[in-house]
Amino acid sequence: MNDGKKTITAETETGTESVPAGKKSYHFDILALILWFVLMWGFLAALSFTDSPKDAPGIHELLSYLYFFGFALVYAVFYILALKKGV
Amino acid sequence: MTMSAAGWGLICFLVFFIVVAFVVKGKVSSLADFWIVGRKGKWYFFACTLAAGYVSTWTFIAGVGTAWSWGPTPSILFYTSSLTFGWIIVTMLIGLRLRKLGYMTITEFYKDRFGGENDSSLICAIGLALAGTTFFYLLIQIKGGAIILATVFNINIHVCIAVMILVQVIALWMAGMWAVVVTDMFTNVVFFIVAICVLPVTILSVGGMDVAFQAVSDAGIWSATGNSGMDMTYFVGYALAWLAIIGGSPHLVNLTLILEERKSVFKGTMAAFIMVVILSVGLFLSGAVLNAAFPPGSVKVLDSITPLAAVSVWPVWLGILILGGAMAAAYTTATSQVMTTSLGIVDMFRFLKKERPSDKTLIRYTRITALIVLIVVGMVASTDLWIMAIASSLAGVISSLGIFPTLLVSIYWKGVTKKAANIMLWASVPIGLFMIICNTAFGWFAPFPTIYSFPVGFGGLVALSLLTKAGENEKLHATRFKEAAFVPEKIVFETSDKVILVSTVTVAAIAFFTFTNVVGVL
């Protein structure tokens, strides 16, 4: 039934299919891009521009564990976004 | 530990893989069952199969050896972009969208996105690029698993390659993707036990905390680059290579397509992440601590550190679990890659034959293709060709030139044309080979070829898209894809979501404070 919403129709493997046109959301994508620039390059830059001793654990070890275990929070943010805004 | 105990352990693993396939073969009654477990995958299936598809022999063997020689942090740094943003790209940005549109294979996405026609050139290009990307990575897994068998049983490596291939063929022939997914569940039990136990047991085995970490300090292998002799630009190149290998990894995209519910992508990825990061950090720190048992320079072949520790440092049960886990990691990663490569090839028959083959015929084609792929991989793995040493780099370069940019950019930008995607996919294998050969032979494209292949892949795709025109049907399909993929649909927030969110973040926090305290940086 046409409820007045615009649809896009195309021939596909399973026949003619229509999808409703609506407001597209790019929140995951924009967030991933921003975080990639900030976190990955920030992490590598932080390691490049800091000195850490080789004969004892130091700032590099701390930064590495913070980056990897802290990344669980990034996944949590994506999960919450999916639950709040839909996918 | 005696070698016979390890040997019996590995035999049990191999027999178990076949038994699993035999038990689940009854679940296969359709093509969808064979290819994507009938799209009945729960989030915990996905978490296990994602972790098992990612963790490889490198993690258990070369990673531990590298950590012993270079230090624990360089090994961890190899995961800078693969386990983190690579996973976000492959599961949440690409896999989720493909799953949302209900595709069964990656070829279906390309076909639908670029006009829905059976374009022979495009479909063959996808088959080539999928095979080109996964083949070289598959080589490492088969060879890695065989090296473990050869070391433990002290027999010819060719026999071990044949055994690895035979077990995979039997399992895939019987149950297809069901065999992959259920084996991955079991493998994760092993990963979990190793993740929890490896560091404390290694520390106790070498004489306690003080002895263990003093040995690492005496070896002078702390810091980001440790004793690697590499500067940070090498790790930047490596981070880019693995962003392409994992971000555009066809077998990980394929695993996303098994999911019953879309939100399972987020649940599963989060649970898998915390498992893999604890396992990896535990193994690499243990590798460094093994300097207390094997002084620096005392072992020439880094890959033999894990087998040596299994024999003379770790208790029998942990040695068996680590060697078995290493072989299982190779096996599980390889089986999902064989399925992906086979699907890319079988899709050529599915879409290019005048009459679409029946589901039964397609299942038969998939079995035969998997057999042929494994035989070819086994033949190459049996040689000592120079290509073995650079196989993973090759996979990353080929991926960053073809599959990765075409998959990622064509999801977002309607302007990507079929001609442009086609050219980049066809060109990815020869250009990738050219870059790697020149890098190996003449030192060109240094320090890491992906630093060059990324701009060539993405830039080439954009430039060619601007220079070529899309047909009307192609534009219509591109618009339809964007609407279907990017218009959000609500999902239900359940109690289990809260439990997983809170428990995963809590486990991550506990792991962070435990590791930093053990090492002594907090």
Task: Describe it.
The complex is a heterodimer of chains A (87) and B (522). Chain A has 2 helices and 2 strands, in the order ββαα. By secondary structure, chain A is of the alpha+beta class. A two-stranded antiparallel ribbon of chain A has the order 1-2. The mean pLDDT of chain A is 87. Chain B contains 24 helices and no strands. In chain B, helix 1 runs parallel beside helix 10 and helix 9 runs parallel beside helix 21. Chains A and B meet through strand 1, strand 2, helix 1 and helix 2 of A and helix 6, helix 7, helix 8, helix 12 and helix 13 of B.
Overview features:
heterodimer; A: 87 residues; alpha+beta; elongated; B: 522 residues; mainly alpha; 24 helices; globular
Compute the separation of the termini of chain A in Å: 24 Å
Flag low-confidence runs of chain B.
Answer: none
Shape of chain B: globular
> Largest sheet of chain A at a glance?
2 strands, antiparallel
Structural class of the helices, strands and pairings of chain A? alpha+beta
Question: What's the overall average pLDDT of chain A, rounded?
Answer: 87
Spatial extent as radius of gyration of chain A: 22 Å
Give the SSE order of chain A as H and E letters.
EEHH
Share in β-strands of chain B: under 5%
What is the count of helical runs of chain B?
A: 24
Distance between the termini of chain B: 35 Å
Contiguous uncertain segments of 5+ residues of chain A: none
- Helicity range of chain B: over 70%
Structural class, judged by helices and strands of chain B? mainly alpha
Indicate the overall shape of chain A: elongated
Rounded average pLDDT of chain B:
93
